[in-house]
Amino acid sequence: MKYRLPLRAGLMFVSLLLVCAVQSEELFDAEGYRSSQYRSPTPSSLDGVQTLDTPALQQLLAERPETRLIDVYRRTWLNERFIEDEPHANLPGSLWLANTGNGNLAAPWQRYLAHYLHQASGGDLRHPFVFYCRSDCWLSWNAARRAHALGYRQLYWYRDGIDAWQQAGLPLVPAQPAELPGAFLTPNAAP
């Protein structure tokens, strides 16, 4: 009986901690981008973006070879450079725009994304882009949504990404992320 009060107080304290932990980790930011728990089940669609499976992606690439594949898998960025902490391979012909699928995207990364999309499209907002990462990965969802916000209109989301490509027995190639120009790291830099 003498432990009843401390036990109850302890249980209440643990319950309070759990509630605070759940509330402190918001899944989406104020703009609607997924900002945590990126490797978790994704929705089946995204407004303004067509979702593709592997056969549909292969058909798109055959019919529209100008389509640009955009890999948004994360890469550690430290001391103004990418750190190759593990090898990465992606779909042949991809442009790897590392970290552009993060939810709370800092200005340098926004400029990085805008710059390379503009460069790859020649400024044509109807140029086809396919965004991907891995299966159950919100990074590609965020990046495709962000490209739509930039005005691009021929957007595709290869929802299961690299994992589905590999499961289909299709080749991957070693990859390095596109360079983040040093000028983008300064405030007010233009893409």
UniProtKB/TrEMBL annotation:
Q: Which residues are the signal sequence here?
A: 1-24
Q: Origin, by domain of life?
A: Bacteria
Against InterPro entries, the record matches this protein to:
PQQ_CXXCW, Rhodanese-like_dom, Rhodanese-like_dom_sf
Kindly name one Pfam family recorded for this protein.
Rhodanese
Q: Which UniProt keywords apply?
A: Signal
Q: Which residues form the Rhodanese domain?
A: 110-174
- Protein's recorded name: Rhodanese domain-containing protein
**Can you name the source organism?**
Ectopseudomonas mendocina (strain ymp)
